[in-house]
Target: DUF6286 domain-containing protein
Amino acid sequence: MPSGALRGGEVPSGAHSAALETLHDKVADRAAVRAFRPRRRIPAVIVAVLLTLLGLLLAVETLSALFGRPLRLVPYDRMLAWASSTSWSNPWFLLGSALVALLGLALLATALAPGKLKMVPVRSGHRDLIIGVRPKSVARALAHAAEQVPGVRSARATLRGGTFTVIPTTSGWRKRDEFRKDVRDAVLARLAELDPAHPYRVAVHVKERK
Model:
């Protein structure tokens, strides 16, 4: 067998290294995006305060009962009497249960939903180095790239969600579809140079001015 040939099932070491590098890059990209995600502090603080107050209340009631002087800050007797005399189909009971369930689901959804990125993570060439660029700075760079296209008098760009919206202003002396494609290509090329770790879409809306 020639020295350069591969046995069945073998994978070239170069291809294996490339696959590992690609996987590592994806892991690094996800880590970079997570690093610039805002923490869900408000829901966490609300839940922590509620649990702390509940724990303190239970501790105080338990200790006071053990010393023979129950404080009864919570009217347990009245609550027990109401619960024993109230059916599951009671409208007030159903309403209270629904409100508590909705509050819990809202806090859970808020905690699980990804926050809005306050910085645009870009690749630095080193996996352990994370760089964040302000969205306004990236938008200005994309707008400047659009202004380099022949026929563009001015341009502005904004970031909303995962989409950069570029609005070039032109006098309308070129075909709209061709003009939009040229602007989009220029913006995508500039975005590729910035090399963001998170994929962004580009939308171009042409504005004509006579």
